[in-house]
From TrEMBL:
InterPro entries: Ribbon_hlx_hlx, TacA_1-like. Keywords: Toxin-antitoxin system. The keyword Chloroplast does not apply. Belongs to the TacA antitoxin family. This is DUF1778 domain-containing protein. SUPFAM superfamilies: Ribbon-helix-helix. Signal peptide: none annotated. Gene3D superfamilies: Single helix bin (1.20.5.780).
Length: 86
């Protein structure tokens, strides 16, 4: 089974000092600048997205949420009419 991953180019500009640090770090790690930056950016963006898309609740708030969610009201006339449509 062969999987081909589509790639896309990302261009960026950096000040000379940062570029030199990147070159130094990649040499120490035995990797390429692209691989080094991509892995570190991937870790950073995954963290940002997770922090913004994850809802954290305390145990007491979660239990209250569950209790309220399980207490569904009886359907009103508008909902019954909507559900009767084909």
């Amino acid at each position: 089974m062969s999987t081909t991953l589509e790639t896309a180019r990302i261009n960026l500009r950096a000040i000379t000092e940062i570029k030199a640090f990147i070159a130094r770090a990649t040499a120490l790690m035995g990797t390429t600048a692209s691989s080094f930056m991509l892995q570190n950016v991937h870790d950073a963006v995954r963290k940002v997205v997770t922090e913004h898309e994850t809802l954290r609740l305390s145990q007491s708030v979660f239990q209250a949420f569950i209790r309220i969610s399980e207490q569904s009201p009886a359907p009103n006339a508008a909902l019954q009419s909507l559900m009767a449509r084909r």
